[in-house]
Design a protein that fits this description.
mainly beta, Barwin-like endoglucanases, about 120 residues, six-stranded mixed barrel
Length: about 120
Amino acid sequence: MRKARYVSILSIKWCSLTSIQPSGTPAILTVNDFGPGRDGGDPSECDGNYHPLPQRVVALSTGWYNGGSRCGKMVRITARNGRTAVAKVVDECDSTQGCDQDHANQSPCKTNIVDASENVRVA
């Protein structure tokens, strides 16, 4: 897995906050492969499909995923250097379970993760 980069997510609130910060919400960007047979595990939660490259997609931590309410929405990811990328929400990065076949036997993710396809580059 590649080294995580810190980013801000605009218009996505941290699960425990009551308001959205106009400057964005700090997050950690990780890289995933949403294609069949890849490290993303099962098909995406939002639509039951795989999303191979060149699709620009993300999975959000459980709180931000918010029961699927952000499925299909576009999110803007802004790095500290000011570069941005836009990607579609297609899945949940499970902050509570992980470690099962559906989640490619990976550990539960942190509560501030945006797990992006490899072509969502902001650094």
